[in-house]
Amino acid sequence: MKILSIETSCDETSCAIVVDGHKLLANVIASQIDLHAKTGGVVPEVAAREHVLKIIPVLDECLKIAGCWWDDIDAIAITKGPGLVSSLIIGTETANVISFVKNKPMIPVQHVIGHIYSNWLEITDEIEFPIIILTVSGGHNELILMNNHHDFEVLGETRDDAAGEAFDKVARILGLGYPGGPVISKAAVNGDKEAFKFPRSYLEKGSLDFSFSGLKTSVLNEVKAYGAKHKISEVSEIPEKFKNDLAASFQEAVVEVLSDKLITAYKKYPKVRELHLSGGVSANTRLREVIQAKMPKNVKFRHPQSMIFCTDNAAMIAAAAYHLYKLAPKKFKAKTNITPTTSFEIEKFYA
Ligand code: KG4
Ligand code: ZN
Q: Mean pLDDT, to the nearest integer, of 172-186?
């Protein structure tokens, strides 16, 4: 089954064509990173305007790369939410028109469920349920128990900032640019992770929730203290060594909490066969390394097969859509009008 998928929930315009939920024919991503780097973060109106400009060229390129035309496509998958409504609507309206004009069944997908299915892309073996997934993005941060396809239970979530958001904010504090994850992890390579003793917020004993806003404030306080001590008012005047040490110590604090919580979740559900990592922060090599080291050896650890499957992409939406379609093919009809949503509600999304 060939699914053409569209993802425009934030600042990536992406279209993909995926066969049977795992085999990629095309996955075209027009990133807006350079545009948003100027403002140090995503401005929704700017993102939406860029999606308008990019969606048709990206769609055309996707069909061209895949060597497909409309007759080859069995269904359309679309990110319905959560995300920026002004961005989502460009994708949903495009999908609505295609579904109507080309008479293709439409499969709406929840964005975070899309991230979860990024681990199905380009694999050749079978994933064994139940699974615990740590999904860490700029907008979301959850621990999820997955008993079967599209059968989810949220075990824990962030009470304030998501991990990716913390990376972005700390990068901004240090004047390192946007998005924060890649620049912080690059700076951390040359830094000392023991240089600063940042707080690890585990919340109540056994809690599987997360909190990263206190950590971000601690980083800000260190920068302010350094500035006051050395009479520096511009972040550009802060020496590279200080920034690298801060980046490494901050990253270690995030990685330690994320990996410990994943292992705590596993101990609560020892029947779990696999532990998965997904979302933009799953691109972090230190996080992968530390999870791998703490993992029980009889459980399989997966993260996306390619770095481009970690951050937002349409291929993961097609993978999620395929398994949803297989559960109830008659449910998905052509000419259905999909409207965007900001709601997360993972367990109730398709109800
Ligand atoms: O999943 P994603 O593309 O978008 C959302 O759904 O939010 O995640 C984007 C987030 C950003 O906050 C970015 O800083 C973070 O993923 N990120 C990373 C890395 N690469 C991207 N965080 C840590 N380490 C990385 N290497
Ligand atoms: Zn995402």
A: 95
Determine whether the shortest distance from the Cβ of 282 to ligand 1 is under 6 A: no
User: CA 188 → CA 29, 182, 195, 215, 284, distances in Å?
Assistant: 27, 10, 11, 16, 11
pLDDT, tens digit (0-9, with 9 covering 90-100), for 2-56: 999 999 999 999 999 999 999 999 999 999 988 988 888 889 999 999 999 999 9
Query: Coil, helix or strand for 35?
Result: helix
Counting from 1 in the atom list of ligand 1, the atom nearest the Cα of 171 is: 14
**Distance from residue 212's CA to the centre of ligand 1 (Å):** 15
Query: Could you tell me which CATH number the domain at 131-304 has?
Result: 3.30.420.40
Do 131-304 and 2-120+308-349 fall under one CATH topology? yes
May I ask the CATH class of domain 2-120+308-349?
A: alpha beta
62 CA to middle of ligand 1, Å? Answer: 24
Q: Measuring CA to CA, how many Å separate 284 from each of 76, 77, 162, 185, 259?
A: 31, 28, 15, 7, 12
Single out the residue of 281, 270, 14, 260 nearest to residue 135, CA to CA. 281
- Ligand 1 atom closest to the CA of 115, numbered from 1: 1
Nearest residue to 152 (alpha-carbon basis) of 114, 104, 192:
114
Which residue puts its alpha carbon closest to atom 6 of ligand 1?
137
Q: Kindly state if the Cβ of 304 falls inside 6 Å of ligand 1.
A: no
Q: Which of the 8 DSSP states describes residue 136?
A: E
Q: What pLDDT band is residue 154 in, cutting at 50, 70 and 90?
A: very high
